[in-house]
Each structure stands twice: as C-alpha cells, then as structure tokens.
Amino acid sequence: VQLQASGGGLVQAGGSLRLSCAASERTFTNIHMAWFRQTPGKEREFVAAIRRPGIRTYYADSVKGQFTISRDNDKNTLYLQMNSLQPEDTAVYYCAADLIWNVQYGTPTAWDYWGQGTQVTVSS
Q1: pLDDT, tens digit, 9 for 90 and up, residues 64-118
Q2: Are 34 and 95 in contact (CB under 8 A)?
Q3: Contact 82, 19 (CB under 8 A)
Q4: Which of 39, 58, 62 minimizes the C-alpha distance to 50?
Q5: CA dist list (Å): 29 to 10, 64, 77, 102, 112
Q6: Cα distance between residue 59 and residue 46, in whole Å
Q7: What is the sign of the dihedral through the CA atoms of 34, 39, 45 and 48?
Q8: Do the beta carbons of residue 65 and residue 49 sit within 8 Å?
Q9: N or C: which end of the chain has fewer CB within 10 A?
Q10: 5 pLDDT exceeds 80?
Q11: What 3-state DSSP class applies to 84?
Q12: d(CA 10, CA 113)
C-alpha cells in the first residue's frame, strides 16, 4: 500500500485545513486508516483512525470535536478535516494504513504503511 499525503500549509489560529491521503490500494475498502502527527523531538502522536469501510471512527481526546476523519472509498482517499486550529496543532501529519485492525491503534507500531507526511503550521 502506497500512501500520499497532501493538504498541509500555513494557517492562522482559528482557521481550517483539510488533509488528504491518496492510497494505491485497489481494494481501498479492505484497509483501515489513521492520522498521526509529530513535532520535533517528540514521539509520533495518534490523531484519529477509521476502520474499513468507514463507519467506526476513533479520536485522540485532544482533537475530539475539532477534527473529523473520513474516507471516500470511490476515490481511494482518506481525509482529515481540521477546524479551529491552534498553534499547538502545528506538526507534520502522517497518514497510516493496515490490512488488520489492531486494538493498539493509537500506537505507531500498530500500522504497517505510512505516507510521507505533510506539514501543518498554525500561526498565532
């Protein structure tokens, strides 16, 4: 599975961004997907996950009500809608995928496939 993340950029506090992650997997509906983020010197942090085919979603407490994860199975694309962004949301955001759902979905080691990351910078 190859993943290509996009949509990052510079936004002012209070603004919104939508990240996308295009997947090469022909049977996109077979894969579970997630978003993580990472800042320099810190471990990669779980943001949100969505199980195939897209009904069940999971969020980190820090982004509940602020971010929305979704997927378009016809376009083989994962999304992360981020609203009310704050400087503390600044990070490189990575999409991840796996064929098998892991109950430890909040840990990076639970995911086998990763995109290259897209930078999100929120200015105050």
Answers
A1: 999 999 999 999 999 999 999 999 999 999 999 999 999 999 999 999 999 999 9
A2: yes
A3: yes
A4: 58
A5: 32, 24, 10, 16, 16
A6: 8
A7: negative
A8: no
A9: C
A10: yes
A11: coil
A12: 26
- Three-state DSSP at 107 gives coil
Q: What amino acid occupies position 10?
A: L
Q: Which two tokens stand for residue 44?
A: 């990669």
Residue type, 117: G
If you search the block for the tokens 């990240």, which residue do you land on? 19
What would the two tokens of residue 75 be? 């376009």
Taking only the tens place, the pLDDT of each residue in 20-69 is: 999 987 778 889 999 999 999 999 999 999 998 878 999 999 999 999 99
Task: Identify the three-state secondary structure at position 5.
Answer: strand
Q: Which residues contact 93 (CB under 8 A, 6 or more apart)?
A: 5, 8, 19, 35, 36, 37, 47, 80, 117, 118, 119, 120
Determine how β-strand 9-12 pairs with β-strand 118-123.
Answer: parallel
